[in-house]
């Protein structure tokens, strides 16, 4: 069953008066529940554009985007924002954790903002930290964590509000190969432990090979690899 579906999605940009570039020319993508899909895209191919549209941060020129069974076509900003907060989690190359808060607090805060009670939020944060092997680091601030640990906490934060879909943009792009492996293993554990689906943009062929499926952005369309 599909948790994220893009159908015939197009997006063009105007770069000056007579210069339109067609970045997405009819993207079809179905992400099923529990599935982890690698998105491979050469630089400039439109990866950010695609992730922004899938993440409901931008709207396509045409085509449809459905998240958790809800089609956003013709819907307003507030509907997209609430669907984004409920159903989508984001991870980037850099962790973007709040430096003055501990790992645990960084995972609790988005839950409090979502109306979850402190005690339940804390239990959820502890459960996620345990899944990525960081229970002993709960009281550390980001600066006291290694790069791999920071990124694992960022995964936990992204999953704090139990989204159905994780969108990850080069989540291991800043890490050395050994740490990348370890962080990726943590992501696999989270997917297994939570039933999450993930679309993971990566340039790392070894990580891509370990996912359920690989798609490549090529001339504005997604092709299976
Ligand atoms: P990637 O993430 O794969 O590098 P992007 O989605 O950022 O690719 O960009 C794809 C193409 O669209 C690039 O040629 C880029 O210059 C162009 N582009 C992206 N955003 C805009 C924008 N807001 N206005 C004009 N052109 C843009
Ligand atoms: P890795 O080899 O995994 O990148 P590091 O060598 O950076 O890890 O750190 C090893 C351990 O020391 C990590 O578990 C990390 O939590 C801890 N650590 C790293 N930097 C600090 C720091 N500034 N203060 C306290 N602990 C730290």
Automatic annotation (TrEMBL):
PANTHER family per the UniProt record, alphabetical: IMPORT ATP-BINDING PROTEIN, LIPOPROTEIN-RELEASING SYSTEM ATP-BINDING PROTEIN LOLD
Family statement drawn from the similarity comment of this UniProt entry: Belongs to the ABC transporter superfamily.
GO MF annotations in UniProt: ATP binding
Keyword Transport tagged: yes
Entry-linked InterPro entries: AAA+_ATPase, ABC_transporter-like_ATP-bd, ABC_transporter-like_CS, ABC_transpr_LolD-like, MacB-like_ATP-bd, P-loop_NTPase
Organism: Pseudophaeobacter arcticus
Span of domain ABC transporter: 4-225
Alphabetized SUPFAM superfamilies for the sequence: P-loop containing nucleoside triphosphate hydrolases
Keyword Transport in annotation: yes
UniProtKB keywords: ATP-binding, Nucleotide-binding, Transport
Designated name of the protein: ABC transporter ATP-binding protein
